[in-house]
Amino acid sequence: MYTLLSGLYKYMFQKDEYCVLILGLDNAGKTLLILSVDLKKSKIRCSSCCSLTFLCLLTVGTIDVGKARLMFWDLGGQDELQSLWDKYYAESHGVIYVIDSTDEERLSESKEAFEKMISSEVLEGVPLLVLANKQDVPNCLSVPDIKTAFSDSAPKIGKRDCLVQPCTALTGDGVNEGIEWMVKCVVRNIHRPPRQKDIT
Ligand code: G3D
């Protein structure tokens, strides 16, 4: 009886909470990405950890998709903030890596940060969504261009779920497709179970 009631309580009043890190160099479009997730299909709350944007270490957005609640953590991409990324790996259920498709000059810098991130053993098996952002800009790098540039890193991706998705955070194009894919991947990844959180 207790099990039945506790199951009912969980079903009615609790969500499965998943933490998804949003990583990438500064200016890649991470902040705009959080804001562009479709508000009609999901409830979203965005907040910053402090009011001084230039000092802000992370921005958090939350979306509810069915019984799953995804918390997005934008950790910031500046050099000094990249050194903090790995502090969050153990808690994360998924990673979204955002690339600025218009910035060919910083592509090798982005690849370096990407490679360091996927080399972390703590992230092994964690689903990875790579977003080739700013596809609205004419002559930007395409997904095949980016795959070619990042091809050395492919073996390090290993067996984890991985998708490279073109998108435009400015208009939301391609963003929901990526998020929906991420939701499916984190829910089916039995190696990183969700936290149970009361619905607020
Ligand atoms: P960050 O959080 O990764 O540092 P931001 O990046 O979300 O702050 O975006 C950096 C700049 O890129 C912003 O321009 C933003 O408007 C722009 N941007 C983000 N996504 C897109 C996109 O899909 N298309 C285009 N054309 N621009 C985008 P500003 O001028 O405000 O610095």
From TrEMBL:
CC terms in the record's Gene Ontology section: Golgi apparatus; membrane
Top-rank taxon: Eukaryota
Lineage of origin: Eukaryota, Metazoa, Chordata, Craniata, Vertebrata
Keyword DNA-binding: no
InterPro entries in the cross-refs: P-loop_NTPase, Small_GTP-bd, Small_GTPase_ARF, Small_GTPase_ARF/SAR
Matches recorded under CDD domains: Arfrp1
Similarity remark: Belongs to the small GTPase superfamily. Arf family.
Cellular localization per UniProt: Golgi apparatus, trans-Golgi network
Subunit organization: Interacts with SYS1.
Binding site for GTP: 24-31, 77, 133-136
Stored Pfam families: Arf
Metal-binding found in the keyword field: yes
Molecular function per GO: GTP binding; GTPase activity; metal ion binding
Main location: Golgi
Alphabetized UniProt keyword annotations: Acetylation, Golgi apparatus, GTP-binding, Magnesium, Metal-binding, Nucleotide-binding
Function, in words: Trans-Golgi-associated GTPase that regulates protein sorting. Controls the targeting of ARL1 and its effector to the trans-Golgi. Required for the lipidation of chylomicrons in the intestine and required for VLDL lipidation in the liver.
SMART domains xrefs: ARF, SAR
Protein name: ADP-ribosylation factor-related protein 1
Binding of Mg(2+), residues: 31, 51
BP GO terms, sorted: Golgi to plasma membrane protein transport; intracellular protein transport; protein localization to Golgi apparatus
PANTHER family from the UniProt entry: ADP-RIBOSYLATION FACTOR-RELATED PROTEIN 1
